[in-house]
Amino acid sequence: MTAPTAVAAPPALELNDLEVAYRVRGIWRPVLRGVSFTVADGESYGLVGESGCGKSTAAYAVVRYLPRNGRVSSGSITIAGEDLLAMSEAGVRKMRTQRVSMVYQNPGGALNPTIRVGDQVAETYTIAGVADGEAHERAQEMLRKVQISDPARVMQRYPHQLSGGMQQRVVIAMALAKDPTLLILDEPTTGLDPAVRLALWARIRDLRAAGTTVLLTTHYMDEAQRLCDRVAIVATGKVIAQGAPTALIRSHLAREAVEFDCATDEEAALIDGTAPPHRLRSGRRLICYLDDASALVERLKADDPEDRRALIVRPANLEDVFLRIAGSTLEGGA
């Protein structure tokens, strides 16, 4: 007897040829143009690009929370195999309540300024049917899980009494209280100081390890490279490249980057014979990308023993890839 064929589970999230437009002064202007990507169950996926490229619009479309002047013109969005655009309003509300959580870019705007923090976190549990007393206990425990050291004290405060980093942790606690299958983080570390940013990165890593599916939007390329299994680079509303960060670096550039100062008329003589396939210039700063930078580094050190050129040798990174394919003053093989 032949064993039944196993049916593959649908991806946690799939966008297919998505088009979104905003109505501005009576004219529908495209914002997303044929955006397609798939996020596997348990994967951390990043949408990266400059401010205004459309990555946050994609995140809002996933929770069907576009502004009034926005609309999905064509394409599809499925969450765990369900057609989001065909859902009723009641179905969308249920999805937001039980399965999908989003942490918005401005945490202060996501919190009610007139209600104590503890009551707002507890409300997430009471909506799910948890009794009030237990809801407050769970709220306190969830605040502890997002690295708030004195949750009982924080619960008694109003949002304006918390720092931006603390507000962000509270909003993440509210999002995690739903135990979502998909967590969307829209520019979660914008405006945070380095210490708080590192702490938040650690929490996102914990979520990944626990199997939570994460969709992250960010303009910090290093953040995406550290936190995401795969990324899509977005520019002018289009996905122009996607893949694992290390694979994108290998396919678009080279392993190493050599940075140094030099005038334009010095460049040819300094790199002669080392053949860097790609170069990026910003003023007097030149970056050369090579798989083996030793010959170029040796030449530069011989030419400049006192290091007036401020030589830096480092691994190529995702930001270099973005500059390579999204448009810059990059020279060499295109």
Question: How widely separated are the two ends?
Answer: 56 Å
Strand content: 25-35%
Give, in order, the helices and strands.
Answer: EEEHEEHEHHHHHEHEHEEHEHEEHEHE
User: What would the CATH topology of the largest domain be?
Assistant: Rossmann fold
How does the SSE layout of this entry go?
Layout: E1 13-24, E2 27-39, E3 44-48, H1 55-62, E4 70-79, E5 82-83, H2 89-98, E6 100-103, H3 107-110, H4 117-127, H5 132-145, H6 151-155, H7 164-176, E7 182-186, H8 194-209, E8 213-218, H9 221-227, E9 230-235, E10 238-243, H10 245-252, E11 256-261, H11 264-271, E12 278-282, E13 285-290, H12 294-303, E14 312-315, H13 318-326, E15 330-332
Helix pairs in contact: 4-5, 4-7, 5-7, 10-13
